Amino acid sequence: MPYDDPMNETTRIRDQLERSHRGPAWHGPSLFENLEGVTAAVAARRKVPGAHSIWEIVRHVTVWEAEVARVIDGKEYVSLQGDAEWPPLTDTGDAAWKTALEELDGANAALCDAVTRFREDRLNEKVAQRDFSFYGLMHGVVQHNLYHAGQIGLLRK
Predict the structure, then answer these.
(1) Radius of gyration of the chain (CA)
(2) pLDDT tens-digit map of 53-90
C-alpha cells in the first residue's frame, strides 16, 4: 500500500504492522522475510550463549502480538513476564515449528484486524492504568516486531 494513498491513521498503523510482519519494510527484511527457509533445527539452535533462539523469539513476538490485540479489543493491559512472555519450548520438531510460524501469522492477522476495528478518534486515549496511549501501544508493537526481526536476521548468519 503506497504511503501517498489517502488513508486514516489506523489504516497506516495496520500497514506498518503488515510491513513489519511480511514486508516489504523500509529498514530491511521483515519477520517473515528473515524466517524464510529457517528449519526447525536452525530455529531451535542457541547460537549465542545466554541469548534466545530464533524459535523463542518467534514465540515471544507471537504472545505480544496476541496480547496487544486483546488489549485493543478491551482486555486490561498486563505486562507479560516469565514464561508468559517467553514461552518455553517443549517440542522442537518440524511440525511444531510449522505450528509456531502459523501461530505467529495468526497473531499478526488478529492484531491487524483489531487495529482495523479500533476507532481512530480513540488513538490518543491512554491504555487503562498506563502512561501510554493506544497510538503508542500500536506503534510500539511495530517497533517490537522490527527489533526482533533484526535479531533473527543476525542469528541466521
Answers:
(1) 16
(2) 999 999 999 999 999 999 999 999 999 999 999 999 99
- C-alpha cell, 127: 491504555
Dihedral sign for Cα atoms in the order 47, 53, 55, 58: negative
The one-letter code for the residue type at 24 is P
Residue range 9-156, CATH number:
1.20.120.450
- Which residues, 6+ apart, have CB-to-CB distance to 120 below 8 Å? 8, 9, 10
Question: Which residues are bridge partners to 133 per DSSP?
Answer: 126
Check: CB of residue 118 under 8 Å from CB of residue 72. yes
- Helix 134-156 and helix 54-72, axial crossing angle in degrees, nearest 10: 170
User: Which DSSP string corresponds to 62-76?
Assistant: HHHHHHHHHHHTTPP
Residue 148 has pLDDT above 80, yes or no: yes
Q: What is the value of pTM for the model shown?
A: 0.93
Q: What are the φ/ψ torsions at residue 133 (nearest 5 degrees)? A: -90, 170
How many angstroms separate the most distant Cα atoms in the chain? Answer: 47
Whether the predicted pLDDT of 122 surpasses 80: yes
User: For the chain, what are the domain ranges?
Assistant: 9-156
pLDDT tens figures, 29-57 = 999 999 999 999 999 999 888 999 999 99
